[in-house]
Design brief:
The structure is a single chain. The protein has 218 residues and is mainly alpha-helical. It is globular, with a radius of gyration of 19 Å. It has helices spanning 2-32, 37-40, 54-66, 89-120, 127-154, 162-170, 173-180, 186-195, 199-216. Helices cover 70% and strands 0% of the residues. It has one domain (2-216).
Length: 218
């Protein structure tokens, strides 16, 4: 039980920050491109309570911690975007969709830089520094991995994931309409790729480990 609460305390803040910033960035870019929906609904806030999804933000992550899952996964309530309100719906969709993964990549880089800054100072030389810095180091390392996971996972080119909507925005009009029709079946396609194609083990996790090593420096 003690280990469970330790893991939860390490993952809670960076995890909430990652999924909250991901959703807020979608809404903010949509607002800048002409769709005020997220702003009117009060979703352009870093208050995580506005974005919590009971299952994706609370139940699933806690379950994964309990079963000692090798990775933590979760999500917030999607920020509503009415693409028809955008000034150039087809092309603006690309930037709105990319906003979330790009934000997570930036958070991963910032976390890695803070980690390097702390480690540059050497190992903690007192019990107080050990008590404060070690948990912070663990939080930063988790933040790097979790943000990399969110960015790469959401870039899978299957609607309704961000990568799928980027593809819809980039394809010629007729092809984009046909590709967009996959959205109602997107989660089934995604689960099939994860279960039978093992894209997590063959593509996502190796990429996470590669970028993690580059950012952290080992």
């Amino acid at each position: 039980m003690e280990e469970f609460f330790f893991k939860l305390s390490i993952m809670l803040v960076p995890g909430l920050l990652a999924i909250t910033c991901h959703e807020v960035s979608h809404g903010f870019v949509a607002w800048r491109y002409g769709d005020p929906t997220a702003k009117m609904l009060g979703r352009l806030t870093l208050n995580p309570l506005k974005h919590v999804d009971p299952f994706g933000t609370v139940i699933l992550p806690i379950f994964l911690v309990i079963v000692n899952s090798p990775f933590l996964f979760g999500w917030a309530k999607p920020v509503p975007v009415v693409f028809e309100n955008l000034r150039k719906p087809k092309t603006d969709m690309i930037w709105v969709s990319l906003a979330g993964p790009v934000t997570n990549l930036l958070l991963a880089v910032i976390s890695a830089l803070l980690y390097r800054l702390i480690r540059f100072g050497g190992a903690p030389d007192s019990s107080l520094e050990n008590f404060v810095l070690l948990p912070l180091i663990y939080m930063l390392l988790f933040s790097v991995k979790f943000n990399l996971f969110l960015a790469l996972f959401n870039l899978i080119p299957v609607p309704p994931l961000d990568g799928g909507r980027v593809v819809v925005g980039m394809l010629p009009y007729r092809l984009s309409l046909q590709y967009a029709r996959l959205e109602p079946y997107g989660m089934f396609i995604l689960f099939a790729l994860l279960l039978f194609g093992d894209i997590s083990g063959k593509i996502i996790l190796p990429l996470i480990n590669l970028f993690f090593s580059l950012l952290i420096g080992y």
